[in-house]
Amino acid sequence: MKVVVWLENEIRAFSVQAEQLARLRQRHPSLTFCVARDEQAFLKELADADAALIWRFSAAWYGAAPKLRFVATPAAGREKLEPDAERRVRALHGHFHGQIMAESLLAMVLFFSRRLDLAVEARRAGRYEREAYSTTRRLAGQTALIIGYGPLGRSCAKLLKAFGLRVVGVKRNADVDPAPADAVFPSERLPELLPEADLVILTLPGDTGARHLIGERELASLRSSASLYNLGRGNAVDEAALLRALRAGQLAHAFLDVFEREPLPLDSPLWSEPKLAFLPHASAISAEYLDLWFEELAGELDALAR
Predict the structure, then answer these.
(1) Does the pTM of the predicted model rise above 0.85?
(2) Counted domains in the chain
(3) pLDDT given at position 58
(4) What is the rounded average pLDDT for all residues in the chain?
(5) What pLDDT score does 78 carry?
(6) What percent of the chain has pLDDT over 90?
(7) Could you tell me if 80 and 156 lie in one domain?
(8) Contact 66, 82 (CB under 8 A)
(9) Which of 29, 69, 136, 226 has its CA 20 to 30 A from that of 57?
(10) CATH number, domain at 33?
(11) Is residue 280 part of a domain?
């Protein structure tokens, strides 16, 4: 059985490395892995491939691959794989991202709760002072509200619970087992849940249609000590309203991993807001990214070999 691998990306952690391929071949010795470095080489190998490990797949390519049984992408977004109109080929998406992103969220939360933002500022200014850290707060006993309580939300909840937080999830269909959260409520309950939250965390997937779910009214309802974190959809937060709320003291801090426009424009006022920190859509990046995906795919590849 032949598996064609085309995993090239501008980010090194998202591009397959020689040592990863070696481990993949060692784990699945009965499969032939052919590596393509560009689209032309990929399409040539695809003609007699049984599976494809790729970032994206065009619907026009299915007809050129009569033996193909499944295509798999490490991406969670469904837009990466165009569907097979004949439903002959299965499309598999990555579900491992929560393992990495939950740690990114924890780093974001600790950055502000332990006032590491002050430490960075003091280091740059050459100051050695301790009084400012009197504003630090323990996480234990605080309430985290996770909006978009899917697999990513559950991964975040598990880590936050270990630090003693009360975790409440928000989901369109709330008729689910809340674990590891303490409770899960439908999205129409969001207005009454926001004022009780210390941490507001957005982990919405890309197909929710929740543009500006967090806007002027929602931000005004938060505690002045609350903080907001967005690891889901960039347009779920009204950035202009967020800046106004931060400057007015309606919330203490915000940490964004995603934005309404990406990459974030250099003239965006977000760059200069001291109460705001951000990552360049990097909360899922890790040296172990593809290793985790290959581990997740192990069962599918074993089945292919049988």
Answers:
(1) yes
(2) 2
(3) 97
(4) 96
(5) 85
(6) 95
(7) no
(8) no
(9) 29
(10) 3.40.50.720
(11) no
- Residue range(s) defining the domain that contains residue 30: 2-94+286-305
Tens-digit pLDDT profile for residues 163-196: 999 999 999 999 999 999 999 999 999 999 999 9
24 in any annotated domain: yes
| In a shared domain, residues 106 and 249 | yes
Q: Could you report the per-residue pLDDT of 64-98, keeping only the tens digit for each?
A: 999 999 999 999 888 899 999 999 999 999 999 99
Is residue 177 domain-shared with residue 248, that is, in the same domain? yes
Q: Does 37 lie in the same domain as 165?
A: no
Number of Cβ within a 10 Å radius of residue 128:
6
Task: Looking at the structure, tell me whether residues 125 and 228 fall in a common domain.
Answer: yes
Which sequence positions are flagged as catalytic?
233, 262, 281
* Predicted pLDDT of residue 208: 66
Closest CA to 250 of 229, 284, 226: 226
158 in any annotated domain? yes
Whether residue 207 is predicted with pLDDT greater than 70 in this model: the reply is: no
